[in-house]
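Putative pterin-4-alpha-carbinolamine dehydratase
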Amino acid sequence: MSDLKAHSCEACSPDAPKATEEEKQQLHKDVPDWEILDIDGEEQLHKVYKLKNFIKALEFTNKIGELAEEEDHHPVIVLEYGKVAVNWWSHEIGGLHKNDFILAARTDAAFNDMQ
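Predicted structure tokens:
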């Protein structure tokens, strides 16, 4: 497996191609704990992280926010006591792009850094 979190994100425009089935299968190997869900006709990467308490969950949420701002690519984040749910997908193309898998890998790395 490659070190997906180290890959560079590409600029994504509305006419950018979605990841092919083959690309999704390959990229998903680097973030196997993420589910690929169809939500309102758009594929999204989804994962729930469990943390000790609300403060830790908030700290992790802020780390994800920093990742999102660095790439100008923003997920859905749901913060609860001791739990953070994250969905990555490319809004402009209405589905998954390589960038989403890269940011999923970076989200995992941010979580692991907190442990």
